[in-house]
Amino acid sequence: MIHEKTDSWFRQYGQKVISAEHALSKIRNGSCVFLGTGAGEPQHLIRTLMEKVTSVTDLEINQILSFTLAPYVEKSDYRKRFRLKTFYVSSELRKSAFEGHVEYIPVRYFFIPSLFRKKQIKIDVALVQVSPPDEFGFCSLGISVDICKAAVENADLVIAQVNKNMPRTMGDSFIPVSKINYLVPYDEPLIQFVLPPPSEVACRIGRHISNLIEDGATLHVGIGRVPQSVLYFLKNKKDLGLHTEIFTDGMCELIKAGIITNEKKNFHPGKVIATFCMGSENLYRFVHNNPMIEFHPADYVNNPMNIAQNKKMVSIDTALEIDLTGQVCSDSLGYKFFSGIGSQVDFIQGATLSEGGLPIIALPATAKEGAISRIVPHLSEGSGVVCTRGSAHYVVTEFGVAYLHGREIRQRVLELISIAHPKFREELLQKAKMHHYVFPDQLPLPSIDLQFLEKYEKWVTIKNEKKLFFRPIRSTDEMLWRDFLYSTSEESIYYRFFQAIMAWPHEEAQKWVNIDYKKTMAIVGLTKERGYEEIVAIGRYINLDTTRAEVDFLIREGWQKLGIGKFLLEYLAQIAKENGYKEFIASALSENIAMINVFKKVYPNLKMSREGNVVYLYFEI
């Protein structure tokens, strides 16, 4: 209402309006100056400080995700005037960072606001961008609340660029006019940050990750093409939620499509919780005055205890390099600082503590156009460990998913080699043997891309209404295979192998899980839940000659007579036909009536012969 504009805040507003040059001239030499973040940074104030207020010098600049400042850092005359300290090396700053012109502060995003409050980093001046004030005299930090709120609250001098294009966002984003010393009205478009469509590699990674995400999960998706690629593959999910560092266009589209509803969240149900936003103009319009989207400071959004309150919390971040034991480097290429710790550790810890949570590290298997492997025997000299081997859970590349949590070094080494690029697997295995990470007689892992096997993966609802996941056996399934055999009755083992087998040592067991998927194929049926898998059935065929193969299957007690044998027989026949086989041969002990009946049911015209106590069955497929 009109009379409200006569309130004290409105009078203050008029008294505080000033030009950028005049406001920035108030900065004293030697000051520590904070600049607003990313797409919300005050571009006009930064340009004016760099180009027009040249008398101010010897400034320490603190920022995270620099864009406008980046071109100036390249110029030696500007480097004489200020020192840039950043919590995250953006792509625009990497060249300067590699040359030593940018100082990197390695710290978790969650802890940055406390550095300001404790004066460990003393902010003399905060330059931020805000929306115009509302009728109550509150401006919004809009799309960049993150560490800006703490910087404003702890700075001696606050200068705000007031931009009508800055969205007014909900949550803990507001600053009263009374807390701002100088206001510089200047309208200009916000920085837009639109990712290109995901590459083929990113799509494969995104598809693998999407298969891990359950309906009702809450997501954190980190910055970059690889983590964001998963958003393209969530169209068949239901009631997803968001508790995330960054809010992006891909997330916006899933909200509009009804995929992200936030209705199943335990923490702030019905709300998207984020700390900053980067994307297109459409995204910025979407968050403006949108009550579903709340922006809060980084020490609230990134607090692992807050993150963990969401059940089925899924954290998706990326990395630069991972060693064979699971140590993750995310912020440097050797001695060169490439990005930052950011929110990775915060959300890994939060997702780990969440009931049903999934901490995921996603990265391409190679770098430099395939010239080097990102999965390495040891981290490069100078590389820092952002996520320890004890904290790593899921690692995903375009070649599959490795699950590391709680697994011994030998198993996690094999898991990671299996998702490395095929051309590097032999070398990685040799290094692992040299370091005694695996047994000396470990068989080589497949040296081909096994993407074609994905078409043989499927969920099947069996007679007891339970679902089993069927897929080809993997070279990393040795322990699952042994556990399956040891949990199967002696009678079933005798029926399958025609002898009592009491032990399955490594040297024997690994032969059953390392196959070529053409001449020999094995399909396992698994119970599968949040990283835990258990084999309950297996069917396989083995080459006899160019057109014939021998087929068999074994099903654990408690899962028999549910149609699994029939499914495996029909499925193996389908795969065998694709590989050129025309006939199956099977053998069974004569007292194994149940097994023989399965074959007769699927192939009523089969032929039978007997040799002693063994029945042989022959049938075209």
Number of domains: 3
Q: Into which percent range does the helicity of residues fall?
A: 25-40%
Which stretches are low in confidence, meaning pLDDT under 50 for 5 or more residues running? none
| CA-atom Rg in angstroms | 30 Å
What is the SS-derived class? alpha/beta
CATH architecture of the largest domain: 3-Layer(aba) Sandwich
Most strands sheet: 8 strands, mixed
Number of helices: 22
Distance between the termini: 81 Å
- Overall 3D form: elongated
Give a count of the beta strands, DSSP E runs of length 2 or more: 35
Strand order of the largest sheet: 28-29-30-31-32-33-35-34
At the first level of CATH, the class of the largest domain is Alpha Beta
Q: Name the beta content range.
A: 15-25%
In short:
With 621 residues, the protein is α/β, with parallel strands linked by helices. It has three domains: 2-185, Glutaconate Coenzyme A-transferase (3-Layer(aba) Sandwich); 200-434, Glutaconate Coenzyme A-transferase; 452-620, Gcn5-related N-acetyltransferase (GNAT) (Aminopeptidase, 3-Layer(aba) Sandwich).
